[in-house]
Amino acid sequence: MSVTVVSGVPGVGSSRVTEAAVASLDERFELLNSGDVMLEEALGSGRDVEGRDDLSGLSPTELRRLQRRMGEYVAAVATDPDTHVVLNTHLVVSTSAGFVPGLPPRCFENWTPTRSSSSRRIRTSSRSAGATATTAPIGWETASASSSSSR
């Protein structure tokens, strides 16, 4: 299983960065957007939503269910040893009940890493934002895109 998580605050440019990165890689890399996956699940289960922005109006319980299902979907896609998932998500999501994590731990309970590596940080930058990638000791790769006023 190979899952690289790229996250940032809304508007920082993580979607553009991930789209460009995956477009420049070979077909083994599949880009998933957590909001898109959650929207498809909500639509498929008959929720009254039309777009990703409507997800923020759902109850916290329903949002957690959608996040868990998103994690299960990512795990299912990533089980193919030839597929490398690049997951784009927000660090936090504003909801009617306040802010919630974009990728809470329950989302990746079903992710089983296939390799282990030591933690390391990689600094990259784009025109609109700096991005930091951290590979966790258990083999999951995570990246955080954040705006930087010092650049």
Q: Topology of this protein?
A:
Layout: E1 2-8, H1 14-23, E2 29-33, H2 34-44, H3 60-78, E3 84-90, E4 92-95, E5 98-101, E6 120-125, E7 130-135, E8 141-146
Parallel strand pairs: 1-3, 1-8, 2-3
Antiparallel strand pairs: 4-5, 6-7, 7-8
What does this structure look like?
There is one protein chain. This protein has a single domain (about 1-145), classed as Rossmann fold, CATH 3.40.50. It is about 25% helix and about 30% strand. It has 3 helices and 8 strands. The chain has helices spanning about 15-25, 35-45, 60-80; strands at about 1-10, 30-35, 85-90, 90-95, 100, 120-125, 130-135, 140-145. The strands form 2 sheets. A 6-stranded mixed beta sheet has the order 2-3-1-8-7-6, sandwiched between helices. A two-stranded antiparallel ribbon has the order 4-5. The longest helix is centred in the middle third of the chain and has 19 residues, at about 60-80. Mean pLDDT is about 75; it is low at about 115-150.
Beta-strand percentage?
25-35%
Outline, from the CA principal axes? globular
> Roughly how much helix do the residues carry, as a percent range?
25-40%
Strand line-up of the largest beta sheet: 2-3-1-8-7-6
The CATH homologous superfamily: P-loop containing nucleotide triphosphate hydrolases
SSE arrangement, N to C? EHEHHEEEEEE
Number of strands: 8
Number of domains: 1
CATH topology annotation: Rossmann fold
Q: How many helical elements?
A: 3
CATH class: Alpha Beta
User: What is the gyration radius calculated from CA atoms?
Assistant: 15 Å
The secondary-structure class comes to alpha/beta
Overall average pLDDT: 76
CATH architecture: 3-Layer(aba) Sandwich
